[in-house]
Amino acid sequence: MNPPHDFQSIRSDDNNRWFHPWEFMPDAGHANRAIASHGEGIYIYDENGQKLIDGPGGMWCVQIGYNRREMADAIAEQVMRLPYMNPFSLTSAPPARLAARLAAMAPGDLNHVFLTTGGSTAVDTALRFVHYYNNIKGRPGKKHIISRENAYHGSTYLGALVTGKDREKNWFDIASPLAHILPHVNPARRPTGMSLETFCTEKVNDLEKKIIELGAANVGAFIAEPIQASGGVIVPPDGYFKRCWEICRKYDVLFIADEVVTGFGRLGHWFASKEVFGIEPDMIICAKGLTSGYIPLGACLVSDRLFSEVSGENARGASFGSGFTYSGHPVACAAALKNIEIFEREGILDYVREVSPHFLERLHGLRDIPMVFDARGMGLVGCVECTVAHLMDYHVDEERALELDTDLGARIDRHCHELGLLVRPLVNQCVFSPPLIITHQEIDRMFDILREGIVRTMHEVEQELGIKVA
Ligand SMILES: Cc1ncc(COP(=O)(O)O)c(C=O)c1O
After folding, report:
1. Is 253 in contact with 220 (CB distance < 8 Å)?
2. Ligand 1: residue whose CA is nearest its atom 3
3. Of 363, 305, 330, 362, which Cα lies nearest the Cα of 111?
4. Is the distance from the beta carbon of residue 119 to the nearest atom of ligand 1 less than 6 Å?
5. In the chain, what are the domains?
6. How sure is the predictor about 4, in pLDDT bands with cuts at 50, 70 and 90?
7. pLDDT(395) > 80
8. Which of 62, 115, 260, 431 to mutate to test ligand 1, by most ligand atoms within 8 A of the CB atom?
9. Which helix H or strand E contains 214, and what residues bound it?
10. 379: Cβ below 6 Å to ligand 1?
11. What was the pLDDT predicted at 392?
12. Mean pLDDT of the 137-165 span
């Protein structure tokens, strides 16, 4: 812990020297971020000693909560035993054991585990594997990748290529014509009067039509998050994921499930693909909760079928020429193994299934606030979306409403911070995915604060617009 008088200089170093992810460049140099001092359980303490519920669980990753002594011990022990080994030519117990554990947890025949440094590098590996696979199989045209609006698949060049959020792509060049983004799958934004079933069919048809348009011989893979997390926790209609998987099988298109957020307990299972959505993908990507965020690590799981088709006698003498200095890092893998042990010993998967109905009930309870457009979620992940346009009955100017919307998440975040809760603002939405050990009472406290933060923001907006909502 830093003594309080250090915080000034931390802020100054941070403002002037740390070029942050998603840096809002107009504010660079004077962003004045809150300083996280230390964590304990589901709480983060800021530089003023304020105790904050960590609503987003770090970035959807601190599943077992902060300050776990056993994690520190496991990490320290591995550092002393073997902090690093060259993964190209050597192996050691932690990565080998972890690969075996992940293969055993995964659905179907996902038995080959490529270890990476995080989610983006795991996505990159999966996409490079699709291309490698089809080259080895003598299908050099089968390279196009289909993704969806609002998808987030990472910040490497390939991860960004298949990301379907304009905000993430603006001002960058995307060189490849190989990515195709399907329209959104957000049920809350379906046309008025359209049933969920019809919407689902329309969305599945989007995929099939795109495969037909490109020609199945040219489509390598479809990549999808079971729930689009940073796209705003978009839960697609029932049956959508399974029907997409069936379409992919029909056209021999590989199905990549990006479970960076939905894996490792967020929906009450190690992986959600089979247990929640009833599918066995060709590849699964995971990261984040794999080590509960204590150390960076990611993995790309590949099925026996794919692996056997391009290995051994089928490999045509090729190497899979992709990997990282820190692939299978022994310290990260030791942390993952300890994390899994804690999950099992504490019954965290069962607990998430037990507590999540309460979480969802409190989440849906926010819908009665006039400024709330939608509150949605699954397991222990949720999003509340607000819009000033919802106050339109009060004759708000549309342009002004849209302008105010862009700042709603940040305003709610500011109020919640004052009240003792961190939320993750995304334009007019706030997403949260608390540590999985959160208790019933802590869930209540979290939603009480969130409600108050939204209501305060709404009153602020009312004042600025000179209206009064009942
Ligand atoms: C679904 C999904 N895929 C990939 C990534 C990228 O993971 P990382 O930030 O570890 O590279 C993220 C990160 O938020 C994600 O949510």
Report:
1. yes
2. 153
3. 305
4. yes
5. 34-67+347-465 (3.90.1150.10), 70-346 (3.40.640.10)
6. low
7. no
8. 260
9. helix 196-214
10. no
11. 61
12. 95
